[in-house]
Structure formats: structure tokens, C-alpha cells
Amino acid sequence: MTGSAARLDLLVAAARPGPPDQVCRHRAILVGAEALVALGGLAGTVQLLTGTVTPPVSDLEPLGRSTWVLPGVWLFATVAVPASAAGWLAWRRAPLAPPAVLVASGTLALELVVQIPFIGTNVLQAVFGAFAGGLAGLALDARRAGWWPAGWWPASGIG
């Protein structure tokens, strides 16, 4: 088996559901919180794509844009999709769930950092930033408890 095929096999195995008796620390919180983040990302995407409750278009002048469509697509790609995938994997007890939560937390944080120069700071950014940090911490704790794909780095505990 080639290296690429072996990595693909690891990925497929890590996305399969875990056994029902598997201990998945923080699973319910991860599923619920990622669902909320995904819904928030989806709602924001719809608002941006339809021009409903958007910041002034003048905020987009540095980008040379005149509509919120591109930022809406960006929001969907960096928040709604990763959070949906992470929540779905956690619901399935998939070993890939904690790494997916870490990726979703990172892309959410990236989205928040990218939007600040254009629209300034907002309380909602602080709330979602706290979600990103808290979910990343829970995913790392789940990893310490053994909920992590076999054969993935780092396979041993942190610290």
C-alpha cells in the first residue's frame, strides 16, 4: 500500500463512528456548541448573501468589493462548514471529532481576526472567540482522555 493510500485509510477509519460504549469526553457539549456555531455561521452567511442586516458596503472599499457576497462565501467556508463537520463527527463518536473541532476552532478564530480590520470589534466577536477557545480546550482534553484517531500525531498525551 502506498503512503497516500495508507493515509486515506487512516482518514476513512477515523471518520467512522465509534462504538456506542466508547468514552467520548465532552461529546454532548461539542455536538451542541458546534451546532450553535454552525447555525450562527449559516445565519450570517444568509444575511451577507441577501444584504440583510449587513455593515455598510463602504467597509468593503479596501477590498474593491461592492457587495457582501464574497465575505458571505468566506464565512460559510470558514465557519459553517467546519463547525458542521466537527459537530457531525462528534455526534457519530468518530475518532476524528477532536481534531475536527480543533480545525473548526482555528478557522472560526481566523474568520474573527480577518473581519476586525473591515468592520471593527463587536461583542459577538468576543462571544464567538470565547467559543473557539473553549471548544479547542475541550477537544484537547478529549484527546488527553483517549478520544483521538489511532496512528495520528500526536498519539500520546500532551505535556
TrEMBL record:
<feature type="transmembrane region" description="Helical">
    <location>
        <begin position="96"/>
        <end position="116"/>
    </location>
</feature>
<protein>
    <submittedName>
        <fullName>Uncharacterized protein</fullName>
    </submittedName>
</protein>
<feature type="transmembrane region" description="Helical">
    <location>
        <begin position="68"/>
        <end position="89"/>
    </location>
</feature>
<feature type="transmembrane region" description="Helical">
    <location>
        <begin position="122"/>
        <end position="140"/>
    </location>
</feature>
<keyword id="KW-0472">Membrane</keyword>
<feature type="transmembrane region" description="Helical">
    <location>
        <begin position="28"/>
        <end position="48"/>
    </location>
</feature>
<keyword id="KW-1133">Transmembrane helix</keyword>
<keyword id="KW-0812">Transmembrane</keyword>
